[in-house]
Structures are given as structure tokens and as C-alpha cells.
Write a structure and sequence with these properties.
Helices cover about 30% and strands about 25% of the residues. The protein is built from seven helices and ten strands. Helix 1 runs parallel beside helix 2.
């Protein structure tokens, strides 16, 4: 069902077909499925769903430079690079996540495609970025993008774990530099009580306010490959476009 959803969604949005790629089986994914000899998981198909939504508004051509904050295991990067080998992607995340993401991407894409933190750790600017490669950075290095023009800023489900002031600071680095911004977050913010919570919620209105000079060009309830994100459908995905871009 999830795979068929992706097939149809790709056609409707004019995206590259899901059948043109498959995922790596590195890490032995527990939800692995096979379609016509190609390997997928529900998570991998979900990253395809997010790409399809973004593609409706951005219309990827394959030579874009993308900055992803909170790249996690690297599966969104894997999917985008397999669809568009010429893309340049800069990944920023916490040290432990970045270590795991880098290791995964080296297996999924090949070590020659990935420039790891052993190379980038001492960088103070992005002048050495080469087209068509994947770069791994610590999250504290994100201020470098404030002097770097790029096409798309991407963040999915990690801004909600932060206080509004922290989110605003991160977005201040990319404002005016990214032509497009893709976000998938909790519309009304995360919980303010319980074992895992924030003191102050970051809502859709906050994201819009933190992106001066940008306008929303697409927004909808966020979906995984087989269900809505969250039990009540409380997550959104949206694309902002820089004025004049």
C-alpha cells in the first residue's frame, strides 16, 4: 500500500519515480520490503513522500545545493542523491547523530561521495565545497551558511524539539541565503509537560515570523508513506520561497 501510494504520488507531482531507485540494506532495516527486486522500507518511502511535496513547489532539476539541519541517519540525503546524483548536500547535526549519518551515507552512496567531519571539522567557511558531493558538519558550524548562497534549506521534525529563540537563531543564518525553505513540524508545537518537553512551543506562526522576506507557496497536513504524521494529523509540511527568487 505504501509503495503504491508513492507510485501514484510521484505521477501526480511530476517527481522522479520511486521505481527508479532503491535503498541500501546497511543496518538491516526491520521493515524491509521488496518490489520487483528493489528494496524499500516504510521510512525510506516516507522520505520519498516528503520529496514529492517539496518537488511540487521547488521543481528540482538536479544541480541544487541543499542545506539540511538535523539530517539524522541521512536517509533523506540518500534518497535525494539517488534521484539526483549531481546534487550538493550539506548536512548539519549533533555529533553522535552526524557520526551515524556519515557512516550510513558512506555505505549508501559510496565513500567517495561523502566528505566527513574528519575533513570539515576545522572549516570556518564553505569556500571548499565542491558540486555534487555530500558534506558532514557539526550543528555548531551552521553559522557558515550565513555567507553562502544555496537553493534549499531543509528541516524535518527537529525544530519542534527546540525553544523558539533557538529556532529563530538557526533560521537567521539561512534567511536571505536560501531560495527555498522546506519544513515539516508540529503545527502547534511540542508538549510543554512530561518527560520530554519544551518550555515554550514553536508553532507554524513562529516559523512564518522567523522567515522575513519569504512567503508560503505550499502547505498541507504531513503524511508518512502509509498514514498521517501524528495520531491527530497535527504536523504540517510547507515550502517558503524567498521574495524575488
Amino acid at each position: 500500500m505504501a509503495y503504491r501510494h508513492c507510485e501514484l504520488l510521484g505521477k501526480v507531482t511530476g517527481a522522479k519515480p520511486i521505481g527508479s531507485i532503491e535503498m541500501t540494506t546497511f543496518g538491516n532495516p526491520g521493515d524491509l520490503l521488496t518490489v520487483e527486486g528493489r528494496k524499500y522500507s516504510i521510512n525510506f518511502l516516507t522520505y520519498y513522500v516528503r520529496y514529492c511535496f517539496a518537488h511540487q513547489h521547488i521543481r528540482f532539476t538536479g544541480d541544487e545545493v541543499i542545506v539540511e539541519l538535523g539530517s539524522g541517519s541521512g536517509r533523506q540525503v540518500e534518497l535525494l542523491k539517488k534521484l539526483y546524483p549531481g546534487m550538493t548536500i550539506l548536512c548539519f547535526d549533533l555529533p553522535a547523530q552526524m557520526y551515524l549519518g556519515q557512516r550510513y551515507l558512506e555505505e549508501a552512496l559510496g565513500k567517495e561521495q561523502v566528505v566527513g567531519t574528519d575533513v570539515t571539522l576545522g572549516w570556518t567557511d564553505l569556500s571548499r565545497v565542491e558540486k555534487g558531493r555530500v558534506y558532514c558538519f557539526g550543528n555548531w558550524q551552521i553559522p557558515m551558511v550565513s555567507a553562502f548562497d544555496f537553493d534549499v534549506f531543509w528541516n524535518a521534525a527537529s525544530f519542534g524539539e527546540m525553544e523558539p529563540a533557538v529556532v529563530e537563531r538557526y533560521l537567521s543564518y539561512i534567511t536571505g541565503r536560501a531560495r527555498w525553505v522546506y519544513l515539516m513540524q508540529a503545527r502547534q508545537g511540542k508538549e510543554t509537560a512530561g518527560k520530554i518537553h519544551v518550555d515554550e512551543k514553536t508553532t507554524f506562526e513562529d516559523y512564518d515570523r522567523f522567515l522575513p522576506g519569504y512567503e508560503v507557496v505550499g502547505e498541507q497536513v504531513a503524511f508518512d508513506a502509509h498514514r498521517r504524521v501524528g495520531h491527530t494529523g497535527g504536523y504540517f509540511e510547507a515550502v517558503w520561497k524567498r521574495a524575488g527568487a
